[in-house]
Amino acid sequence: KDKSTPQPLEDLNGTVAQLMTEAFGILSPHNTVASALDYIVRTDPSITITYIYVTDEADKLLGVLAMRDLLLARPGQTLEEIMTPTPFAFTPDVEMPEAVNAALAKRLRLYPVIDEEGTLLGQVYGWRLFEYVASEISAQAGSMVGVNKEERLSTPILQAFRMRHPWLQINLLTAFAAAFVVGMFEDTIARIVVLAIFLPVLAGQSGNTGCQALAITLRSMTLGETKGFPVAQLLRKEIILGAMNGFCVGLIAALAMWLYAGFSGAGDPVTLALVILIAMVGACIGSGIFGVMVPLTLRRFGADPAMASSIFLTTFTDILGMGLMLLLATSLLL
Amino acid sequence: KDKSTPQPLEDLNGTVAQLMTEAFGILSPHNTVASALDYIVRTDPSITITYIYVTDEADKLLGVLAMRDLLLARPGQTLEEIMTPTPFAFTPDVEMPEAVNAALAKRLRLYPVIDEEGTLLGQVYGWRLFEYVASEISAQAGSMVGVNKEERLSTPILQAFRMRHPWLQINLLTAFAAAFVVGMFEDTIARIVVLAIFLPVLAGQSGNTGCQALAITLRSMTLGETKGFPVAQLLRKEIILGAMNGFCVGLIAALAMWLYAGFSGAGDPVTLALVILIAMVGACIGSGIFGVMVPLTLRRFGADPAMASSIFLTTFTDILGMGLMLLLATSLLL
Questions:
Q1: CA–CA min distance A109, chain B (Å)
Q2: Total beta-carbon pairs less than 8 A apart between chain A and chain B
Q3: CB within 8 A of A138, min separation 6: which ones?
Q4: Are the C-beta atoms of A174 and A157 separated by less than 8 Å?
Q5: How far B286 CA sits from the closest chain A CA (Å)?
Q6: Residue of chain A nearest B11, judged by CA positions
Q7: Which carries the bigger pLDDT value, residue A16 or residue B72?
Q8: Which residues of B touch A212 (CB under 8 A)?
Q9: Which residues in A lie closer than 8 A to residue B165 (C-beta atoms)?
């Protein structure tokens, strides 16, 4: 498997400024190679100089020198003669996805940071960028259910409560929406109580099917793989998968309903089984669509595509799964 | 915020072998600094030599040289004299978490790979390790709901179906368990149908509260932060948070039940509201416990702690949330 063309990363927050540290190994362009060598020898050996930054009197970055450049030069040459002029550098306002993708392409140990005028402000280590990526991406599963990426094990309980609780209240509101839909069919449930027993089955299956589509869409967005994929193609795949998964899972659920309704004598077992099968296929197809559309819609509105995505998704899948079952039962049985 | 002591990473699959590439820049210990310089000058400039690997006739890695070492040496010295002997190196069987943590500590651009006898087998770039980490961690949200980390947008539909479907059947089985619990209270629901309407509310809230605890636990495990935290402390925090969240969300849900039951005249509104409040607090406390225990239990059994964790978690939270509400209603109202 060829890994030489790394995938670009997307949807990371923050800018280069927050990972910048002080630059060292700064010399003037008029220094000779010999004096640069002398400088390196005299430097505290605990500081590993990777590059020499060549700056003018106004601290403007003129060029960089790798150790290799000094190695291949003559002692009397000036740094100006052998440096790599106008080197690759970040400005502090470069967004993280851009910085990380640049780092995956350049693969250097260290990157200079300059301002708009070219003044050397500091440097950023490649490993810091990647450490940041690991931290950011590991926050995604939490973001999906309303956990702030700033929350850690050491976060005080009250602060964790303040960060998590608003999303749980929003989740409650969305649960009320699902409850409202179920409530519209109160008469149906009162007449065929077995339908209440299958509410968690429909909600659970459509929710998990939707979360599978959501997770694969989010991961592809994070790793920058969605760029070449038109939305229609993403949707087509999840619709077909939803239909296949809904049908195979629906068959088992329909069999369970047929057995249960047959034993308990509640309603016509065959029709009830058919209701479950059709509702499951429909709900799983819809879940696939929501799983793709929720993160894409969040991003379109400028939000983090993972943000509370699972809360939004399960709202739709709950309403669709339970609503479809109750609607079909009402139409076919009452 | 000091970032100088990077967090160790855990729970990554695979070994160093899968990221190893061919080593270059290999010289004998008897070479002089001058001949090493000559070698570097003659090397294709598209190949950036970061280190010189010094090996004996049997390809055993004796030492490494950074460009800086050559720079500070005299042309007549042999590589043997100036090399860093027995350098840090991976063996191909080093597990990824160990390799990534070493890379975060060493922060080198490149690491040699040797076998047990010290023979140089190849090299691993630091950026490849980090690229791997990004890919692995971004798979976590999918693992939680049964998406294989090998699945990509380009995975054919049938293959995606084969990878995702077994987990949906397992999810169905767990949904049946929840349905079985609800079924035990069929008589209660038949008499107080409004309880059916609150089934998705209890399931949704306990599920999302549990997923918050699950996500923060998983992330902490991934970033290696759980090591200093005894399980009791993790549990204590999530229990308190569950109680606080359950109480505040339960108050609103209880109010909704009080209003709904009052209007519809189904059962005693105050008792029904109390049932919802107590069930919500109990379910959210339990969800916090499950959110911590599910990934820890998966790891204890040698599995990926994220694997289907959301499926297992929602089984418990569904049964607990809906079961507690129906049990309380049965005891207090019938």
A1: 6
A2: 324
A3: B137, B140, B219, B222, B223
A4: no
A5: 16
A6: A138
A7: A16
A8: 142, 145-147, 164, 167-168
A9: 244-245, 248-249
Whether residues A106 and A168 fall in one domain: no
Which of A9-18, B70-79, B255-264, B284-293 has the lowest average pLDDT? A9-18
Classify residue A148: in a domain, yes or no: no
Chain A residue whose CA is closest to B284: A168
Domain presence at residue A313 = yes
Distance CA B96, CA B13 (A): 6
In degrees, rounded to 5, the angle at the alpha carbon of residue A205 between the alpha carbons of residues A200 and A209 is 150
The separation between the first and the last C-alpha atoms of chain B, rounded to the nearest angstrom, is 58
**Tens digit of pLDDT for each residue in A302-326?**
899 999 999 999 999 999 999 999 9
Q: Do B167 and A125 touch (CB under 8 A)?
A: no
- Tell whether A164 and A201 lie within a shared domain: yes
pLDDT of res. B1: 35
A240-255 pLDDT, tens digit per residue, is: 999 999 999 999 999 9
Chosen for mutation from B43, B129, B211, B287 (greatest number of chain A CBs closer than 10 Å) is B211
Residue A5 located in a structural domain:
no
- List the single best residue of A79, A127, A144, A222 to mutate versus B (max B Cβ within 10 A): A127
Element (H, E) at B113: strand B110-114
Residue of B nearest to A175 (CA): B201
- Asked if residues B20 and B120 have their Cβ atoms less than 8 Å apart, the reply is no
Where residue B84 sits, what CATH number does that domain have? Answer: 3.10.580.10
Runs of H (alpha helix) within A123-193: 126-137, 140-144, 157-183, 186-191
Q: A175 and A119, same structural domain?
A: no
Best residue of B68, B106, B136, B251 to probe chain A, by most A CBs closer than 10 Å = B68
Same domain, B93 and B170: no
Closest CA to B18 of B96, B89, B109: B96
Euclidean distance between CA atoms A65 and A68, whole angstroms: 8
Distance from CA of A113 to the nearest CA of B (A): 18
- Closest-CA residue of A relative to B315 is A204
CA A57 to chain B, closest CA, distance in angstroms equals 27
**CA separation (Å) from B316 to B175, B207, B310, B312, B324?**
10, 9, 10, 7, 12
Q: Are residues A187 and A109 in the same domain?
A: no
A162 and A124 within one domain: no
ipTM: 0.86
φ, ψ (nearest 5 deg) of residue A64: -130, 160
Q: Is B142 among the domain residues?
A: no
| Pair (B304, B182) in one structural domain | yes
Which chain A positions have a beta carbon within 8 Å of B189's beta carbon?
Answer: 189, 193, 196
Inspect the interface and report whether the beta carbons of A127 and B6 lie closer than 8 Å.
Answer: yes
Query: Which residues constitute the domain of residue B56?
Result: 16-137
Q: Which of B153, B160, B190 sits opposite A241 (nearest CB)?
A: B160
Question: What pLDDT is recorded for position A8?
Answer: 64
SS3 content of chain B, % helix, strand, coil (to 5): 60, 10, 30
How many domains does one find in chain A? 2
- Minimal Cα distance from A178: which residue of B? B200
The pLDDT of residue B284: 97
CA-to-CA distance for B7 and A47, rounded, in angstroms? 22
